[in-house]
Structure formats: structure tokens, C-alpha cells
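User: quick one, sequence for these C-alpha cells?
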């Protein structure tokens, strides 16, 4: 059973960089041919795919967030990390990490989600 767990600060100040880590257990993030995504849901809105890192280490980003987003991984810890720079209150959301086998869903495993609020 694969499990994903998000961790990171729940409050970030405007203009700072949001950093979240997803720790994976029960499976390796380097296993062919899985993709590991970050997805968020602002209050009252739908899910938004932000980007992903593949089993190979290749990264993919949403065009609307690409200039502010970076996804990396630490294979020794079986973790992958999201960094979102220059945050504004519009980046307030529940952030999820998830796994899929195609790069575009459907997602078979999700983390429980973590609330991030951007506020001074």
C-alpha cells in the first residue's frame, strides 16, 4: 500500500517561497513508470494541477505556474518537494501530492492534503 504524506508550514507570508515535502512510503518514487504530482484546491474552487516529477526525474509544470514553481526530489529519502515562489493570498489552498501512471491522471494514491495560508 502506497502512502503519501505532505508536510510543511501552514502559514506563509506574501512574497515568500512556499515549500512543501511529500514523503512516500510503500513504494519508490523511482519505480517505472509513475509520476508524482502536486495538486492544489483553493477555497471554493476546483482542483488545480501544478506540476509533476517523473520516475526518471523529469519535471513538468502547469504553464500558468511554471515561472514560480520548482519540483525536486530526494531519492535517498523517497521524498519530492514543491517550491512556489512569490506567493500571494491567491495561493492559499489545500495542497495535495498524488501518484499516477500516465502523467495526466487518474491518480491512484493521494496524500491527505495540507492547508497553506498566505497572509501577513
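Assistant:
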Amino acid at each position: 500500500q502506497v502512502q503519501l504524506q505532505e508536510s510543511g508550514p501552514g502559514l506563509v507570508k506574501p512574497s515568500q517561497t512556499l515549500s512543501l515535502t511529500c514523503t512516500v512510503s510503500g513504494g519508490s518514487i523511482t519505480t517505472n513508470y509513475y509520476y508524482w504530482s502536486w495538486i492544489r484546491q483553493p477555497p471554493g474552487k476546483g482542483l488545480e494541477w501544478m506540476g509533476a516529477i517523473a520516475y526518471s526525474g523529469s519535471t513538468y509544470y502547469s504553464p500558468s505556474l511554471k515561472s514560480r514553481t520548482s519540483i525536486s526530489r530526494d531519492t535517498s529519502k523517497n521524498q519530492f518537494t514543491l517550491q512556489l515562489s512569490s506567493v500571494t493570498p491567491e495561493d492559499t489552498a489545500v495542497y495535495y501530492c498524488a501518484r499516477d501512471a500516465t502523467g495526466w491522471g487518474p491518480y491512484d494514491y493521494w496524500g491527505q492534503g495540507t492547508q497553506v495560508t498566505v497572509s501577513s
